[in-house]
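Colleagues,

For the teaching module next term, I've prepared a clean inverse folding example: a structure given as tokens, and then the sequence designed for it. I'd like students to try predicting residues themselves before seeing the answer, so please don't circulate the second half yet.
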């Protein structure tokens, strides 16, 4: 049933035929010879299979996992304790859209607190790839479903920034893994400013509880507080609050502010999660900043 209903990750190594990845298999680890948390991979979507493989060096995309990735640290006993229905899920595929405005801002959304996975966490719009979709089709559909913004494929020049191995819960201290994804972060350029796009914003309250157009200065502060690292966040020259659009239960937008500390919060090692920017989003935003420095790369 899973093979029919969902796009799943398949891996191909050393010229062998693609094999469906197992839920408890670290994809980053699969392609790393020394246990690194970042590798370079190529990807393709063929016959409803998302295939990852190693290609020519320098021609692929970065695939990264956090140092605290639960799958990386999963013991044999812990793996055996994962319910069979979860183990049989395989690894899902998602696309997240970094929508860059003409004045170099990107759209972030706060996931609704009722969602089962990563509630109340800030991420770019995105979601699962459905059968017969391209990665771009999936990203544009999710962008419209979550934010109301409709872009046509011919209006954008998509660019994959990188891939992220995402596991929920994000740390073993919060429980055994329930979901395992490879998320493709795709950059899209809009010819409109954030104010022009804001006028068309109509978020789905079932999925989104707030929106934010982040400029490069705020993004630099966000990525300076990387999860799992002890470095001090760079908050110089930033105001103590950030302007956001809150989404009511009926979908209405209202202007509000949130403390800057929300956006530089790190994922807690234990206990309940906090409102924050997701770890994968921080990595993607770091890649976005690099793309600003080398726009034609």
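(Answer key — instructors only)
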């Amino acid at each position: 049933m899973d093979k029919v209903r969902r796009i799943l990750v398949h891996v191909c190594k050393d010229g062998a035929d693609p094999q469906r990845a197992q839920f408890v298999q670290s994809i980053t680890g699969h392609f790393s010879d020394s246990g690194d948390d970042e590798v370079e991979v190529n990807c393709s979507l063929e016959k409803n299979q998302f295939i990852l493989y190693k290609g020519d060096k320098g021609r692929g995309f970065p695939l990264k996992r956090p140092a605290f990735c639960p799958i990386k640290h999963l013991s044999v006993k812990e793996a055996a304790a994962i319910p069979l229905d979860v183990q049989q899920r395989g690894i899902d595929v998602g696309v997240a859209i970094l929508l860059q405005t003409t004045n170099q801002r990107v759209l972030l959304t706060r996931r609704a607190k009722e969602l089962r996975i990563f509630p109340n966490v800030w991420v770019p719009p995105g979601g699962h790839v459905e059968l017969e979709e391209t990665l771009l089709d999936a990203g544009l559909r999710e962008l419209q479903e979550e934010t109301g913004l409709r872009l046509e494929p011919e209006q954008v020049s998509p660019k994959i920034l990188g891939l992220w191995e995402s596991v929920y819960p994000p740390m073993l201290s919060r429980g055994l893994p329930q979901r395992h994804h490879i998320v493709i972060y795709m950059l899209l350029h809009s010819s409109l400013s954030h104010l022009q796009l804001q006028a068309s914003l109509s978020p789905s309250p079932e999925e989104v509880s707030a929106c934010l157009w982040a400029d490069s200065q705020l993004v630099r502060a966000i990525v300076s507080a990387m999860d799992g690292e002890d470095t001090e966040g760079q908050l110089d020259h930033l105001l103590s609050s950030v302007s956001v659009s809150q989404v009511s239960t009926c979908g209405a937008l209202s202007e509000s502010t949130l403390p800057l500390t929300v956006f530089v919060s790190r994922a807690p090692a234990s206990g309940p999660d906090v409102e924050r920017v997701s770890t994968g989003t921080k990595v993607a935003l770091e890649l976005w900043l690099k793309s600003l420095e080398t726009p034609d790369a």
